[in-house]
Amino acid sequence: MRWTPDLFGPQLAALETGTLGTTTYTGLLRSAVYQNTLGTLDFYYQVAISAILPGDEVFNLTSGGFLGFTVDALVDATNFDGAGIFTAANNPNLQGPPGSTTTTSRNGSGSVVRADFGDNGLEAAGQTSATYIFRTNATSYNLGGAFTTQDGSVAQRANFQPVAAVPELATWGMMLAGFARIGAALRRRATVVRGRLARA
């Protein structure tokens, strides 16, 4: 599935940080949360390489925290956010045949989403991946997930994840008032039933 501009909505949060924990390359990990025009959340990821050991290659990225949510994977190689943190992909293999060869998947429990770059792995200084987008049915998020890239070593940092929406105080109030009305109605009904049984 390809990203389409008609579903592009406002950016809610973004992070751009250096790689953490890796010993084979340096670069930037970019991620963001957007609310699409459907009203749900999209999670965006991009990797940019500034230096990498000869013969090494960044070949995938993963993100955790998606358990219980539906996810569609999309890819965009353009500079869709203008002056924002994401840039156009410049991996040579993305410019012509074979184009994007990325495949996406989830782990067995469904908590981790993954993009395997295929022929579009990053193996030279200055290369930037496409932006990988995971469209969800979530309406809330927090910073409790993990964004990981892998080559000869692993770079990881805290990242955005979808979370179940927590009702607002006004919603809790309406729910409690509703439960109270249901309880009162059940008590009245029980009294009426007992009265009828007593007269019988």
CATH architecture of the largest domain: Sandwich
Unreliable runs: none
Approximate strand percentage: 35-45%
Largest sheet descriptor: 5 strands, antiparallel
Shape: globular
CATH-defined topology of the largest domain: Immunoglobulin-like
Tell me, what is the CATH class of the largest domain? Answer: Mainly Beta
Total DSSP E strands? 10
What is the average of the pLDDT values?
Answer: 84
- The spatial strand order of the largest sheet comes to 1-2-3-8-5
Order of helix and strand elements from N to C terminus: EEEEEHEEEEEH
How many structural domains?
Answer: 2
Explain how this protein is built.
There is one protein chain. With 200 residues, the protein is an alpha+beta fold. The protein folds into 2 domains: 159 residues, Sandwich (Immunoglobulin-like), CATH 2.60.40; 34 residues. The protein has 2 helices and 10 strands; from the N terminus they run βββββαβββββα. It has a 5-stranded antiparallel beta sheet with strand order 1-2-3-8-5, with no helix packed on it. The longest helix has 31 residues. It is globular. The termini are far apart. The mean pLDDT is 84.
Layout of strands and helices, then pairs:
Blueprint: E1 11-18, E2 25-35, E3 41-52, E4 60-64, E5 71-76, H1 92-95, E6 103-106, E7 112-116, E8 131-136, E9 140-150, E10 154-163, H2 169-199
